[in-house]
Amino acid sequence: MDEETQLQQIQLLKSTNDDHGGVIVELDDDHNPMDSTTFLSILRPSISHWKHLGKRGVWVKLPIHLVNLVETLVKEGFWYHHAEPKYLMLVHWIPESGSTIPANASHRVGVGALVVNEKREILVVQEKSGRYQGTGFWKFPTGVVDQGEDICVAAIREVKEETGVDSKFVEILAFSQSHKTFFEKSDLYFVCLMRPLSLDIQIQETEIEAAQVLAMWMPFDEYAAQPLIDKHELLKVIKDIYLAKVDKQYSGFTPISTRSDLSEEKTHLYVNVGDMKRCNSI
């Protein structure tokens, strides 16, 4: 009996090739429950088959209802890569050489929204939880970018969710990178300049019930005079950047729509449009 005939008689895990010489196994939500003994009888010949084909990394996407198979995978040399609400991703490196499987996402992305109206008033909030609770400090709206969400869209959403104010994204004034901030992950934080499209503050009922947020329009000079601004180096630098922007001595980064080879979705490239126009590049 030749090898091809033997393979046809042995049940193997269904897989697709990735772009780096590996395979991906997706045990989807519709996959029937399986005991660990049955799964092991399929997993081992599958790994042997992939090894024969010269495959390298193996990715197994395990839905939450098949959590009973985690121990089997770990005992066969798999390790955790990342987890999402409905699945766990485990990986295995077949060659004896060192693994080149990329690490899980290393950064969380956040936004801060400086919404300033024509009276040079800044939209600020006071949170009843978090690092500033009990300080009386008024801050600009901040939040985390959702998966698949553009930075400019996230800033608009956060302002709306926290204050009910509609706003327009103008540009990224600056961004910072910090490390070991959230379960040892690094953080990218984008400071966004916004213009209000409405002025009425309407805090969502869920926020009011939880007493999580107060909001108001505050003269920028009053915001900048808060003692915590000068004590917090990052906030002081952001204040100085905005003042330089007002004096037309500073330009931030504006999104232009483009495409990337990494995704079929449209993406945004954030550039200094003023300087680019002066160079006749856009």
Labels describing this entry:
282 residues, alpha+beta, 5-stranded mixed sheet, elongated
Describe this structure in words.
This protein is an alpha+beta fold and 282 residues long. 28% of the residues lie in helices and 34% in strands. The strands form 4 sheets. Strands 1-2-3-5-4 form a 5-stranded mixed sheet. The chain is elongated. The mean pLDDT is 88.
Rg over alpha carbons: 26 Å
What is the H-and-E element order? Answer: HEEHEHEEEEEHEEHEHHHEEH
Shape: elongated
Strand pairing plus helix content: what structural class? alpha+beta
- Helical element count? 9
Strand order of the largest sheet: 1-2-3-5-4
Proportion in β-strands: 25-35%
For the report, how would you describe the main beta sheet?
A: 5 strands, mixed
Secondary structure: elements and pairs:
Layout: H1 3-9, E1 16-17, E2 23-26, H2 36-52, E3 57-63, H3 70-75, E4 79-84, E5 87-93, E6 107-115, E7 121-127, E8 142-144, H4 151-163, E9 167-182, E10 185-196, H5 205-210, E11 213-219, H6 220-224, H7 227-231, H8 233-246, E12 254-260, E13 263-271, H9 273-278
Parallel strand pairs: 2-3, 6-10
Antiparallel strand pairs: 1-2, 3-5, 4-5, 6-8, 7-11, 9-10, 12-13
Could you write a compact summary of the structure shown?
This protein is α+β, with helices and mostly antiparallel strands and about 280 residues long.
